[in-house]
Specification:
This protein has about 325 residues and is α/β, with parallel strands linked by helices. It has a domain of about 190 residues: Rossmann fold. A 5-stranded parallel sheet has the order 2-3-4-1-5. This is AAA-ATPase-like domain-containing protein. It holds the Pfam family AAA-ATPase_like. InterPro entries: AAA-ATPase-like_dom (IPR018631), P-loop_NTPase (IPR027417).
Length: about 325
């Protein structure tokens, strides 16, 4: 939404309601969100860290919970059925580091318990995680009469945190697979599923049986789902631009394109917001959100990272 008034910069804020009620700038992603929720049921999205994935999931949560007032003035406000509300279950592996299967299982059980409490559901006698998760989805559906919207943030972080220890990474992968294996048979209780992360693991290794999971990472329709476009900067953030070299902003930060040259390129939100706050250029995202696991793996394989600027690959490799 364009404005002539200077607002607050939403640096590090991942809560949709806080942004909408706290006087912050907000780039309206609801045109793309509307397309997403009406086209399919199971989605996967990969984006780098600090690119707005958590805010996207929280926006979806507020939308399906029917929090209409938060969407006033946004594209979707007059295009959404606010009378239909769905139970929303959100799981996240973004905080902390889990170094064992036991730690991962405890984190999962803790989140499942909290979700049961949110819906005032009775504790189930199940001892296994798939059983607890399956019961949660079924009971939430029965309690509300509506199928569940399931949002999973940083689905891959426990694996990536341990990627330099292959045995431990495999152990944690099996723990996550144990959780995600529930989704196929839970289909009658689900309305929408979206998993986000920074990497992509094959469906065979982590999502066995979930053959209808649609990967939208490189699809043109969703290239602007996260990140800021040139138009966003020139409209939403227009009050912040005086005194800054617009071409330099583009050269520094407009370097992400999820597809070929025909799709819209986007800016990293974290870089842009810190530039607007500090009023000087710098590699802000790289300083705090670098995928160290990837850098370490490249170093182990003797790959000189600056040479990656000249590497190209086919779409088929990225879509495996």
């Amino acid at each position: 939404m364009a404005t002539d008034q200077r607002l607050r910069l939403p640096i590090g804020i991942q809560t949709f309601s806080e942004i909408r009620e706290g006087g912050y700038y907000y780039v309206d992603k609801t045109p793309v969100i509307e397309r997403l929720v009406h086209q399919n049921k199971y989605y996967f999205l990969s984006r780098p860290r600090r690119f707005g994935k958590s805010l996207l999931l929280d926006t979806l949560r507020c939308l399906f919970e029917g929090r209409r007032s938060l969407f006033e003035g946004l594209y979707i406000h007059d295009r959404w059925d606010w009378q239909t509300v769905h139970p929303v279950i959100r799981l996240s592996f973004g905080s902390g580091v889990m170094r064992s299967r036991d730690e991962l299982d405890e984190r999962i059980r803790h989140q499942l318990r909290r979700q049961r409490e949110r819906f005032t559901l009775a504790a189930t006698p199940r001892a296994d995680i798939p059983g607890e998760f399956s019961d949660l989805l079924e009971l939430a559906h029965q309690e509300t009469g509506k199928p569940v919207v399931l949002l999973i943030d940083e689905y891959d972080k426990p694996i990536l945190d341990n990627i330099r220890d292959p045995e431990r990474a495999r152990e944690l992968r099996e723990g996550l697979k144990n959780l995600y294996s529930v989704l196929k048979d839970a289909d009658p209780y689900l309305h929408l599923v979206l998993l986000t992360g920074v990497s992509k693991f094959s469906k065979v290794s982590l999502f066995s049986g979930l053959n209808n999971l649609r990967d939208i990472t490189l699809l043109p329709d969703y290239t602007t789902l996260c990140g800021y476009t040139d138009e966003d900067l020139d409209t939403v953030f227009a009050p912040e631009l005086p005194g800054l070299d617009r071409d330099a902003i583009r050269q520094w930060y407009n370097g992400y394109r999820w597809g070929g040259q025909e799709v819209t390129s986007v800016y990293n939100p974290f870089d842009v917001l810190l530039l607007l706050q500090n009023r000087q250029f710098g590699p802000y995202w790289f300083e705090s959100a670098t995928p160290t696991f990837l850098v370490d793996m490249l170093r182990q394989r003797g790959i000189y990272t600056p040479s990656l600027d000249h590497w190209e690959t086919e779409y088929e490799l990225l879509s495996q």
